[in-house]
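pinned: reference chain
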Amino acid sequence: MSDGAEVPLRELNQQTSRVLARVAAGETVTITKDGVPIGDIVPRGTLTGPPAYPFRTDPMGDLDLPDLGGPALDDDEINATLRGMGEAAANEGVDD
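pinned: its structure tokens
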């Protein structure tokens, strides 16, 4: 079983059963159209990489945050503050 075989869309259309038999045997098949990969057919349960979300997850550029006159904090100070907030919330309602 080779991994990463390419199958043209026309072949998938004409020989679907054969292509799916290869996938059932554990092979990952990349479907191409005019030589360009357009999708993969993978055996069930195979991890294929990052999930495809039905919504945008990419950054939308730099944030333009207003200066509120507070102290300038570096990443470590921000992380320490946020960790402290989480610990405080977890300890709420705990009797000593």
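why pinned: Helices lie at 9-14, 16-24, 75-91. DSSP finds three helices and three strands in the chain.
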